[in-house]
Fold:
Amino acid sequence: MDRDDLKLSGWAVILGASSGFGEATALELASRGMDIFGVHLDRRATMPNVERILGQIRAMGRRAEFWNVNAADEDKRQETVAAMAAQAPAGGARVLLHSLAFGTLRRFFPDDPAEALGKGQMEMTLDVMGSSLVYWTQALVGAGLLGEGGRIYAMTSAGSSHVWPAYGAVSAAKCALESNIRQIAYELAPRRITANAILAGVTDTPALRKIPGNEAMIDAVKSRNPSRRLTTPGDVARVIAALAHPNTAWLTGNVIRVDGGEELAG
Structure:
């Protein structure tokens, strides 16, 4: 396919735009012709990376507006969507990517009960990594930003069906996220908006490095992946960009693996 056939237009809304899959997808979509609305939560120490991403997008001749806010805060969400609506035309948001990776990594039943996952931690993880997709989609559709031809993607993981130490709350959130994608796909199909979950292979991101035992996980994946390497954020970003093409309008409600065959060997 010629590069011109992969040209895109309009705005992309990237939740979690400052690192990992969100960063890579923002840059890839900008390279295909899209302007970028980014939402991220960074402290002062990591803001230079945000400025670098903004600079790269703008150097491509694309517009970019980022908000450093808690994406799970209802008031901030409303304010941010209103600011987006002031800059983009009706239906101007063509892609929504949910790539929020903020949750609690604690065991349900540790040796020390004081270290057990608590109710507040479970609910926060489910809200940020699972439920917030619904609220952002409602806000963007309600504001008229996301309309016919819109594409919604949410980053899930093998943790939705695999058990890892201390991953219980995140696993529950990923299960909820996949369920939410199915419901969104079903309810928005009459509006010609699609929704799919992207199940990336194990990828060396800041989120992975927070999972206990990540080194062993990385080694195991490298040994069983047919290509003998991890998935990269760029691998995933290129697939999302390809799926954002208008010709994919009949693809909705799925969990799409982007892992180089990582699961083929079990």
